[in-house]
Amino acid sequence: MRRFALAFILFMAAAVGQSLAQTAASPQVQAKRPFTFDDMMALKRIGSPAVSPDGKWVLFAAVDVDLKANKRTSHLWVVPLEGGNARQLTSDPAGETGGRWSLDGRILFISPRAGSSQVWVANFDSAAGALNGDPQKVTNFSTEADGAMWFPDGKHILFVSDVYPDCSSDACNKAKDEEKANSKVKAMVFTHLFYRHWNHYTAGKRSHLFVAALDGSAPRDITPGDHDVPPFSLGGQDNYAISPDGEEVAFTSNRDEVEAVSTNNEIFVVSINADPLLAEPKKLSVSPGSDSTPRYSPDGHYLAWRMQERAGYESDLFRLVLYDRVKKKIVNITENWDHWAESFAWAPDSGTIFVTSEDAGEIPIYSIRIDRKTLLSSFTGAPLIVSHGHPVSLLTRGANDDLQVSPDGKYLVFTRMGITHPNDVYKLEIGSKEPVQLSHLNDAVLSQVAMQPLQAFWFTGAEGTKVEGFLMKPPNFDAQKKYPVKFLIHGGPQGQWGDEWTYRWNAELFAANGYVVIMINPRGSTGYGQKFIDEINGDWGGRPYVDLMNGLDYAEKTFAFIDKDRECALGASYGGYMINWVLGHTARFKCLVSHDGMFNAESAYGTTEELWFNEWEFKGTPWNNRELYRKWSPHLFATEFKTPTLVVHGQLDYRLDVSEGLQLFTTLQRLKVPSKMLYFPDEGHWVLKPQNSELWYRTVNGWVDQWLKK
Questions:
Q1: Section 32-53 average pLDDT
Q2: CATH: 3.40.30.10, 3.40.720.10, 3.40.50.300, 3.40.50.1820. Which one for 2-19+448-708?
Q3: Are the C-beta atoms of residues 87 and 79 closer than 8 Å to each other?
């Protein structure tokens, strides 16, 4: 369930490398007030930096939250690459996302400002750092447009739209949508699996790539057929790219017959000049696992992408491969490097790739130098590890993402977050060690609140394996006092607590009202090597449970300020599953919070959509491996349920159907275990709407206070 992992990487937060000294907060920190939900809503959510072609500006998006209006709105900003004040470029009430530069310095973006989500283009005055004239709408597609990018000629754009695969014109799509909207019958007929996904029903549509000229001519579908191009993604880099000469588009698509049991995304290329109805896209990838996020080298010689080897396993090792477009050869350039290749970017000389990778609670940036003669890779910088002759090196630590390289190749531009601050835009001069913060939109809010660092600790987990955990103290900490504990369990299960900010399960907000927060990265967590990840497969309630309990035991013995008689465990997604498992296996906690957790492993299989996840983790289906499903199913241990439990679930959660939460709550009520259920009819796997989020925090923290506060 890498989708679970990505979801809960966003869900959770942690940090690394702080001293274990048990000291009270400084007078300066004590003078600040505790962090509040309103503070969190006042922060701008920054992402998607892009460097202008003249190297002077960084374009980025910043999301504003209006709690009263219950909405979030994104606008575009720029900040000088050399440093200085950021400037807001767009301010339409409808908002703008997806800002991109053309090679001649214009900007495109997506906005629903005219009633539907379309592509807009604006001129940019680089000397003034402002838009020059009003933006112009360049698409008018009935099924809307998203994910747009420029072709090198600046006269065409590529965009994504969800269309009916049997329609060959926009008029056909429009007629079908209108027919559905006007029909009093809302029933749907399904003929294959994957009829719903995450939080929506597919309604017979597929995502396709379209090419549109700026002269107003009708967009052209270059990926027709009954396949999604690109496939669904929870974020990260685009799953398509345009070649430097503008003649070819590379994209990701899954062409397997039963998509619900397949992770076999493949890399295809299609010629822009070919007739898409006559010329089939050419498949380049050969791995039975997932291949995704294609990126052309600036000179057009290579196409790089992320590759997994094992079929059906979305949390297999993510390798970085190069396809030589001349020799027609694929080479794995991260072989023997036991790290996931995450986001990556080419240097302008096509000789270096910069890549992020999770590592023990952080997401450092690494550099890979390409040897063109042998296509061997070498990691530049200060070597950390030498594996089979390849020195593995890093450029900077921290939690980094959204890598970009300046046109002159002198700077890396990226986003960085931490446990004490959300994303900001940073730059790193290549060859230096310390990044420089460029955006400062949240400084005013953060300067008023007490933010606590995390302490990292290591302990012995199941089978003698070293496991890492983290601890956060409350504001105005007093080492002479005893504090109750919120014990957070991350989702995934292939995720990690890291030096990351989150708006959903925010550790600072959990600690703010007088709690110690403890987080453990048990077996299955990312950032500790693939073996550590794989050891949760088929063992959901085994080694991970021991790791978690051993970690809490260690914290209780090590930190005298922990009140071990006042502890509550909370988790969502896989963390919710583990809360349900804990419910039947220990009475050490005074309360529990189970959000979107698997309760009955067999029924969860029949109501989920990404079947590859369950079939991998439980090594088959409920009818050919029922023993393993039942071995790790929390519902079969209901006779041991005694701990007061808050159940949280959303109606639109199709990864873990709402029936899992309802079954748990029903069982607790019939057993007369103190329990409450928070049900969201308008949320999926995550609670996204601002006012729903406010209710979530109020209910969860209130439940914990009810059982732990004296």
A1: 97
A2: 3.40.50.1820
A3: yes
